[in-house]
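The instructor's notes for this session suggest beginning with a concrete chain rather than abstract definitions. Hand out the sequence below and ask the class to guess, before any prediction is shown, which regions might be ordered.
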Amino acid sequence: MHHAVHFLLAGLPILFALICLVWLKMPALHTAVYSYGLASVLAYFSFDTPVQNLLHSSVRGMLLSVTVIYVLVFGMFLYNLLNECGAMNAMAYGLSRFCRSQAEQGLLISASLGPFLEAVSGFGVAVVIVAPLYLAFGFSAKKTMVLSLLTQSAVPWGALAIGTAINAELSGVPLRQLGEYSALVSIPLYVFYAFMVVAVSGGKKSVKQHLDSIFLVSFVLSLVTWATSVYVSTELAGVLAGGAAACALIIYWKVKTLISKKRGKTAAAHVVIGKGNFYKAMAPYAVLTIYIFVSHFSAACRRIVASMLVIQWPKYHFHLELLYSPGFALLLASLTAIWLYRLTGVQLKICIGKTIKQVYPAAIATTGFIAMSSVMEGAGMTNFLAAHIAALVGSWFIIASPFIGAIGGFMSGSNSTANAMFSHFQSTMAQQLHSPALLYATAQNVSAANMTMASPSRIVLAASITSQSGHEGQLVRDILPIAFAVLLIITSSIVGLSFFL
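After discussion, reveal the predicted structure:
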């Protein structure tokens, strides 16, 4: 009975946050502050955490949120700059030439370019980039938020697979094998995400009309992710897969259009108002992508950017490489946009004002949720939940393993952090059950990565970029069923994989 009560108390902050967002429709800013307060009270009174430890965990969580806010600030700033100078409309017009319908726009942006952008940058930057595109296409804020979160299908390879590398190190399994099996488990997920993207963007009736494109993008993503992980590099799998999927879709649609013209048929195109120089509008994003590639894959550049302007606080395990972070790449992209479009001081002032207004609630909410997660981890509440779930299912831990990974991804909003929290625990359970460590490492990696899609910090990010702060509850209600379906698919795949390992 005592353990049951403690189990409920350990999970209460998460449950409380969901109730506030979904049922009470409370703004994320208030929910985050109250959830952090509840976690702190429970940690002190129910889990006997000293005040000093509480303060340590709180500060650590707040410092961790700085890495996210750094990206958020310049991501928002770049969006406002491009919107102010009309570049967003130019990009939307350029992309509309490849797409004949909103469903195709969703497939190109969320199902292919989204994974590419997330693989290149990580930290949810794909959400920041694609949401403004959807708004420029004329999508509603509600659809835009969901579609931007659906870009998180390749998070195991996000930020050049840094989270997967952490998992491999802590689990003691080869990175190549972990990338390979993560890719295998992701095959049905790619299909599911593509179906959901079309259903959300074009409506359920459009799914049947775009089955060919759905299976094409799913096949290319699956094949290239797996082949790159096995034969090239796990770090590059998401980048090459997303890029290949986008190219395959564009070529396929071009061929279909040519065939239709030869047969005398014309397809109705979805045209976006607002012509402009497409390549000029894309230049800031090209700068962002090139900088991240060079800084990550050039050994000389990496040594420079990783050693200059580094903020670290070893006591709190805080380490922020200002020049190595995607936040700095977004700053460079912002400066590129200012230079290309010759923005005036008045325009810059307007963009800075909008950015501050958008970032403030998102920054507070992100800090609160990450601090809550840090307090729960420091008080042992997170491990208590995981250990008792494992004890409850016993030899059926294979079913609980993805759920534990999902808890980490949902709480932290980061595959890297979630893997740092639970990879060793999953490996220990594998040893106790005499099961392959690779199996549980894969379950942890894929479930944690995919559940970041529904994490409060990602929800806040999507709501903020679409100017929907205060309406996060609706987004939670929309995304949670998708997230639970994803978790069910992962669990089924892991159980199936267990028969071959």
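Then share the key points. Confidence is low (pLDDT under 50) at residues 270-274. The chain is about 80% helix and 0% strand.
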